[in-house]
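FORM 7B: Structural annotation worksheet

SECTION A. Query
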Amino acid sequence: MVPVSEAREIYAKRPDEWVKLLLMPGSHDQYEEIERHIVMIIDFLNAAMSSARKKHSL
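SECTION B. Predicted structure
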């Protein structure tokens, strides 16, 4: 996890449209509610991996 400002900067420089950004509530140093959002994180990672596999199989 990185601070939102850095995440947006990284995202703005993404090399391709398949790169996605997931903003989560919390702070960079302390993330106490990660368990509450774990389903959203897993869904995001599954979608990202699916997109990456499709891109590399072309």
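SECTION C. Observations
The chain has two helices and no strands. The helical segments are 4-12, 38-56.

SECTION D. Sign-off
Analyst initials: ____
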